[in-house]
């Protein structure tokens, strides 16, 4: 049995993938051949963001918008989610010591996951569309059963 610090990136990825697919802690531990505590620690580290992007590391220039800036950008989007990138840039530069460009704000929005600047989890289908798709799935199942 290996400890969490002994895992390679591939093994950590296997643990994270197996747990994300719905595998239990015990099943994941048996699959990777490690202790259950190691599975919990690796998955929790991934879940709470203590595992950083290994490809970027500490190389290159520091980010123009750090964690505090990202939280501020999220608040700006939450207040007005229909704001354009130019308006968000103006809000970010207002009272800031270091100004950022619209390209930086756009990249940060994409990196944070605000592609359509929507912070709420909205259903992709309306109720009517769900009924139509559900009825078509039932019809497919009936046709398969008849064959």
Automatic annotation (TrEMBL):
GO terms for cellular component: nucleus. GO terms for molecular function: DNA binding. One of its GO terms (biological process) is DNA transposition. Residues 71-127 form the Transposase Tc1-like domain. It comes from the Eukaryota. Its main location: nucleus. SUPFAM superfamilies: Homeodomain-like (SSF46689). It is found in: Nucleus. This is Transposase Tc1-like domain-containing protein. It comes from Araneus ventricosus.
